[in-house]
Every structure is written in structure tokens, then in C-alpha cells.
Amino acid sequence: MSNRRYYEDAYTTQFQANVVEKIIENKRQGLILDETYFYPESGGQPADWGKINGRSLTHISIRESDEAVVHWLDGDMGDVQVVTAVIDWPRRFDHMQQHTGQHILSQAFIQIAEAETLSFHLTENNLTIDVDRVDMTEAEITAVELRANQAVWANHPITVRFVTQDDVASLPLRKVPPVRNGRLRLIDIENYDLTACGGTHVSHTGSVGLIKIVKQEKRGDKTRIEFCCGNRALQDYAQKHTIVSDLTAELTTSAAEIMPSIIKIRQENKEAQRTIKKQKEALMTVEAQQIIANSIQIGTTTVVKQTFAEDSPTDLRALAAQLTKQEGLIILFGQSGKRTQLLFSRSGNVSADMNQLLQAALAQMGDGGGGGSPQSAQGGGPAHTSQEVTDALDAAQSKLEKMLSS
Ligand SMILES: [Zn+2]
Q: How far is the CA of 208 from the centre of ligand 1 (A)?
């Protein structure tokens, strides 16, 4: 078993140690040292990063059989007895701030909301605890957050001590894990919180800086609390401040007026959409009347044939759907432009096959593609002039005349 020096000292960032064992596994080399300040992945806290003899560690794990800390490196470092190790301090300190903040917040949840912490999870960009209440009010959560930050401002000293199984019963511990090797490591936040923990912590609560709850979410019979501490809280504030500043500039208003402004804009937009819809419907009715007036008659079938310009605001599909509500009607629509569009459609009581008409029009164009059903077909192709599109519609009309006369 390695001597885990980070248990007593979380602030040492560089040390020398003797190699006591080397493991080779999947071309990676694992070193076990007689003592280490590196934190291995465990207890909901990620492992440290760092270097040994200038080579980056890929992972730090705990060997199950004897709880030795294994420092994994890519490749073989050769035959060395003494190594120099450097811990990635910004990452370690971030974990210390987040983890200590968790102790403080968990105690605040007990004091203010009688909510026990069930689990804790820390990753590079996320920090959460699950607490055993689901009915907390916003006011309670705000009071918990204030209590936690008051504990930060009080700058309570934080000490580590080891006790035996027998000592545990008489102590006011928040959390009691199974005792290993006859001793339990306690994290004592003076006059505030006492709990058993194996992680790394700051020496005074003031070093946590700030604790901010950013999200709460009901999960079955518990509530997941997402929060951030220290530098992460500062980053979160900076990011949100940028968003608020951008919004006040964009909306030319104060921060307090952002929400009323957005609600007003959304309301105005809804009304504008309603007006546009009404006007489109009115326009379509006029267009439908004009188109019917220009239609041609083949036997008992009314044929509506029209070429639209590229910039036509008409919604061809909606117009076709409106027109084919009328009995005995066939629509042959084309639109010129960067891409040529063809849309053929008929009323339910007409027997002509729109797909065949579309193929006749595409054959006239000499390019493009498309398909559909006897009821409705659509296709398109590369750019064609208005005249070329009209010629394609004429080809479809000729085909239709043959179809209806046979
Ligand atoms: Zn801890």
C-alpha cells in the first residue's frame, strides 16, 4: 500500500519518491511509489494530472488488491529508482475548491432544509449533489445558498484527522463510510461540519471563494443540485455577465428590462405572424380567382396552367391545395429561377395521372427529375427561362389532352 501523503497535505505540488513496483499493462507502465501526493480517481472526485520525470501521467488509479496508488504513463520510463513528480496545480486546486464547497453546501442543506446529501459527483465541467428532498421551495434553496456562503466568508479552518471505529460512535458525523484498515479520515470544518472523506480540500473555507447553485432538478425521490465554486463560479458569472451585456446592448435596455422587452417582442411577433397569415389567405383567394379566370377547358376538366417567376411570393403548394378542393380541376404549375420547380396536382374526381404528366414535362426540359402519385407529383431541375418552363407545361398539357381523349 502506498503512503498517501495528500491525506495530510493537499498543497504540496512537487515531490520526490522511490519506485517500489513497476507494472506493464497494454504497453503502459504503471509506477507504484513509496509515497505520493497524487490524488487517484476515487470517491466521486477525478484524478490529478501531472508529470513524473517530465512525462505526463495518463491516469492514476487504485489497485483493488492492496489499495496501492498506480501512476500510469505511456511507454516505458526505463530502470529508475527515484522519481521527481509535479502535480498540475490549477486542476488540483479547482478540485479542492469544488470538493470543499460540496462539504459546505451539504451542511447548509442539513441546517436550512433538513436535506441529507445522498451522492456527490465532480467532473471537469460539472458539479452536483443529490439530496433526499423533492419539495424544497425557491426561498429554501436561496437560504441554503446564503448559509453556505456565510460559512465561506467566516473562513473556518479545515483540518484532517484520523479516528478509529470506536471513536466514530461518539462523533457528530454527517456521513460515516465503512472504516478501512481500522481508521477513518475526518474532514473537520471548525464549528461548522464534520464528515468522513478521502478527497482533497482547501485549508480554510474562505479559499472556496463563492458557492453558487445554478440548477435544481427533481429526480425520482431526490433533487439534483448543480452548483459551482471558486474559479468556476467566477467563470460562470463572467459568461452570464457577457450574455446580459450583449442583451442590454441588442435590446437597448437595462438588465432589469430584458425580460419585459423579450416578452413584448414575442407578443408583437405573434401578432405580426397572425396578420401575415390573414393577408396571405386574402392574397391567395384573389390569386385563385385570377388563375381560375385564365384556366382552359379540356372536355369536362378545367386545366389551370401557370408559370411563376422566381421571385413570386406565392406559396405554390398552398395555392394548389386550395384550388384542388374544387371538383374537376387539374393544376400544372411551374416556377423558373435558379432551380426550376414543377408541381402538378388534381382534384379527387379527375382520373389523369399526374406522374405521367410530370415525366412529359421533364422530358421536354431535357433535365431534372421528380415523381409522385397519380394524384400529385412534383419535380425540378437546374435553371430554365420562363419560356422553357412554359414549354414544359405545354408538353404536359399535350400529354393530358391525349390521356383525356383516349
Ligand atoms: Zn471531501
A: 13
Report yes or no: 367 and 382 within 8 Å, Cβ to Cβ: yes
The environment of the single-atom ion ligand 1, i.e. residues with CB closer than 5 A, is 99, 197, 199
Give me the domain span that covers residue 154.
92-248
**In contact, 207 and 185? CB cutoff 8 Å:** no
pLDDT in tens, 208-245: 999 999 999 999 999 999 999 999 999 999 999 999 99
Q: Where does a domain end: 263, 291, 319?
A: 291
Length of the chain, please?
406
187 C-alpha vs ligand 1 centroid, how far in Å? 7
Instruction: Say how many Å lie between the CA of residue 17 and the centre of ligand 1.
Output: 25
User: Ligand 1 mean position to 22 CA, how many Å?
Assistant: 30
Domain co-membership, 315 together with 341: yes
Distance 102 CA to ligand 1 centre (A): 8
* Same-domain pairing of 40 and 73: yes
How close is the Cα of 85 to the center of ligand 1, in Å? 24
Asked whether the whole model's pTM tops 0.85, one would answer no
Q: Determine the Cα–Cα distance for residues 378 and 364; give it in Å rounded to an integer.
A: 15
Question: Each residue of 271-308: pLDDT tens digit?
Answer: 999 999 999 888 888 888 888 888 988 888 899 999 99
Q: Could you say which of 62, 87, 112 is where a domain stops?
A: 87
Give the domain CATH number at 198. 3.30.980.10
Q: In degrees, to the nearest 5, what angle opens at C-alpha 140 toward C-alphas 212 and 192?
A: 65
